[in-house]
Amino acid sequence: MKETRKWIIHRITAIILAPIYIWLFYSLILLSTKNYSEAIYFFTNPLFKILTIMLFIVSFFHTRISLSEIFEDYIHNKKIKDVANLLVSIFSIIIPVIILVLFIYKI
Q1: Cα 48 to chain center, whole Å?
Q2: What distance in Å separates the CA atoms of residue 86 and residue 98, rounded to the nearest whole number?
Q3: Average of pLDDT values for 70-91?
Q4: What's the CA gap between 41 and 21, in Å, rounded?
Q5: Are 58 and 9 in contact (CB under 8 A)?
Q6: 101 pLDDT higher than 60
Q7: Using the 8-state DSSP alphabet, how is residue 34 labeled?
Q8: Closest CA to 43 of 17, 57, 24
């Protein structure tokens, strides 16, 4: 990926993540004053599920780009850098998929 494109995508993912994190923190603070049935409703609400799934997917993508840039700046051995980027890419796909499957079938 070209450096300019990485930079733009990194900024876009940060802009997407900011309001989702604000919503999540605000919702969790409000949740502390709710009763049990309202809390269960919150966690089973489709909006919560969709936004949480978006949060995980976009966060892992954002993290993948960030780590790639860190590796580029601080790891000078090409083989080690390539392995590190490959591992991050694999984990940034596997972990969100596992979370997505668990989220869909457990909640």
Answers
A1: 15
A2: 18
A3: 93
A4: 20
A5: no
A6: yes
A7: S
A8: 24
This prediction's pTM: 0.79
For 2-41, write each residue's pLDDT tens digit: 778 888 999 999 999 999 999 999 999 999 999 999 999 9
pLDDT at 26: 94
Q: Which residue has the tokens 């993290």?
A: 63
Q: Which amino acid is at 42?
A: F
Helix (H) or strand (E) holding 14: helix 3-31
Structure-token pair, residue 60: 């892992």
- Do 6 and 61 form a contact (C-beta atoms < 8 A)? no
Q: Which amino acid is at 9?
A: I
Q: Are 96 and 63 in contact (CB under 8 A)?
A: no
- Measured from the Cβ of residue 73, the count of other Cβ atoms closer than 10 Å reads 8
Check: CB of residue 52 under 8 Å from CB of residue 103.
yes
Q: Is 77 helix (H, G, I), strand (E, B) or coil?
A: coil
Please state, as a whole number, how many other Cβ atoms lie within 10 Å of the Cβ of residue 91.
14
